[in-house]
Write a structure and sequence with these properties.
Its cofactor is FAD. Belongs to the STEAP family. It catalyses: 2 Fe(2+) + NADP(+) + H(+) = 2 Fe(3+) + NADPH; 2 Cu(+) + NADP(+) + H(+) = 2 Cu(2+) + NADPH. This protein is α/β, with parallel strands linked by helices. It has 3 domains: 190 residues, NAD(P)-binding Rossmann-like Domain (Rossmann fold, 3-Layer(aba) Sandwich), CATH 3.40.50; 115 residues, no CATH class; 51 residues. It contains 13 helices and 8 strands. Strand 5, helix 4 and strand 6 form a beta-alpha-beta unit. The longest helix is centred in the last third of the chain and has 32 residues. The structure holds NADPH dihydro-nicotinamide-adenine-dinucleotide phosphate and fe (iii) ion.
Length: 367
């Protein structure tokens, strides 16, 4: 009873090829979004549901059956059900023997259960090949297509063939699979969505270290050194001048760190003579957080702009300018008075004396 609609036209698979059937258990938000995306990418979808007749809003072209009927239609089953409701699977253990079960579930708290949801699933259905995937992709991102922020799908599992098949699906959906190893890694993967900004940790620490280093370097050069050698107190520089020197240095250093891993990767590929070998972990991680490094660099550049705009209105700068003006006005009026004096005009009885004061006050007001 398969319907075809514009929604379900294959984008990446040749329509003459036989469509691979994938089963999705659960017709909730995530199940529906994933089902629609997979239909669009050329898969044939069978939903498993507690109430196949009641299920509404399902994408056109998908079949809805009971859990046991749906399980028989495919050897790969994606579980879009919360962990707390996994119990019903124990009745299906026979049916699920040898099948690939994809666990996409998340928890509400970090380390909520002693074992990961994927490992729990593997215990419930020992005959199935459990693979963890998709938990870092939201239903909204799948629907809206706004996947730029979360293209990465972390995949792990004990059976390499099963894992490979899931990674193929991930690629077909236009996402990037990242092999995280065996099912033990599931616990960490399940914690990712609960950690605030996981990819921001390294860039954040790095920029903090850079700032502290350059700040102390500038303090030594511009505050401690003048104090020791000239007994000059320049501590006020620590508020604006020095940070305004640190921000652009940090921004440029971070920008360089955004481009550097690409160059290292290119050199490594040339050296190895192939682009099909994994980069070392440190380079992989560095490449993955380039966007964050770039955004922090942009933040520093922005701070540099604000501080640069603030500098001319600072008391110290205004005071220096005023002093300079007063000195200049005094000098010119002295020269002027001197030349008048030379011509025999009595300085203190002439109107120029008062005039000189006015010029000085006017200049101060202007500056
Ligand atoms: N929503 C999201 O953005 C994301 C969700 N996930 C994970 O996907 C899984 C599903 O999430 P989501 O679709 O949002 O959740 P929903 O609550 O929208 O859907 C859960 C589905 O589970 C099925 N189900 C099976 N047994 C039960 C039961 N006893 N009680 C209630 N429902 C049951 C139901 O389908 P039916 O009625 O057809 O039987 C239900 O629609 C969760 O594990 C979640 O952590 C992961 C990443 C993102
Ligand atoms: Fe500048």
């Amino acid at each position: 009873m398969e319907k075809t609609s514009a929604d379900s036209l294959p984008l990446t698979v040749n329509s003459s090829e036989k469509q691979e059937t994938v089963c999705i258990f659960g017709t909730g938000d995530f199940g529906r979004s994933l089902g629609l995306k997979m239909l669009q990418c050329g898969y044939s979808i069978v939903f498993g549901s507690r109430n196949p007749r009641m299920s509404s809003l399902l994408p056109n072209g998908a079949e809805v059956l009971s859990y046991s009927e749906a399980a028989q239609k495919s050897d790969i089953i994606i579980l879009a059900v919360h962990r707390e409701h996994y119990d019903f699977l124990t009745e299906l253990t026979e049916l699920l023997n040898g099948k690939i079960l994809v666990d996409i579930s998340n928890n509400l708290k970090i380390n909520q259960y002693p074992e990961s949801n994927a490992e729990y699933l593997a215990q419930l259905v020992p005959g199935a090949h459990v693979v963890k995937a998709f938990n870092t992709i939201s239903a909204w991102a799948l629907q809206s297509g706004a996947l730029d922020a979360s293209r990465q799908v972390f995949v792990c599992g004990n059976d390499s063939k099963a894992k490979q098949r899931v990674m193929d699906i991930v690629r077909t959906l236009g996402l990037t699979p990242l092999d995280q190893g065996s099912l033990i890694a599931a616990k960490e993967i399940e914690n990712y969505p609960l950690q605030l900004f996981p990819m921001w940790k390294f860039p954040f620490y790095l920029s903090a270290i850079l700032c502290v280093f350059f700040f102390f370097y500038c303090v030594i050069r511009e505050v401690i050194y003048p104090y020791v050698y000239e007994k000059k107190d320049s501590t006020f520089r620590m508020a604006i001048s020095i940070p305004n020197r640190v921000f652009p240095i940090a921004a440029l250093t971070l920008l360089a760190l955004v481009y550097l891993p690409g160059v290292i990767a290119a050199v490594l590929q040339l050296y190895r003579g192939t682009k099909y070998r994994r980069f070392p972990d440190w380079l992989d991680h560095w490449m993955l957080c380039r966007k964050q490094l770039g955004l922090i660099a942009l933040g520093f550049a922005f701070l540099h702009v604000i501080y640069t705009l603030v500098i001319p209105i600072r008391y110290y700068v205004r005071w220096t300018l005023r002093n300079m003006t007063i000195t200049q006005v005094n000098l010119y009026s002295f020269i002027f008075s001197y030349s008048l004096n030379q011509r025999g005009i009595l300085l203190h009885h002439s109107p120029f004396h008062n005039y000189r004061k006015k010029i000085t006050l006017l200049s101060i007001f202007i500056f």
